[in-house]
Amino acid sequence: QVQLQESGPGLVKPSQTLSLTCTVSGASITSNGYYWSWIRQPPGKGLEWMGAIGYSGSTYYRPSLKSRTSISRDTSKNQFTLQLSSVTPEDTAVYYCARGRVVYSTGYDYRGQGTQVTVSS
Asked: What are residue 36's DSSP bridge partners?
């Protein structure tokens, strides 16, 4: 069974960089045909796809977040990481990592339980 687990700080100060790691078990992040995404849900709003890293290592970003977002991976640890810079309170959300077949989509077949990140001084 595929499992994803997000980890990282729950509180980040404005203007700092948010960094989250997703640890994957039960599947390899280099498996052909899959994309490994970061998705978030701000309070009272819907899911928002942020970006993804593909099985080949290619990265894809939501245009509105591209200038602040970086996704990387460590294949030796089967992990991928999100960095979101210059955060503001509007970046407060539950952040999920997920596996899917389609990029630029909130669709997935497996997803982590999510981690709450609050941006506040």
From this structure: 53, 99
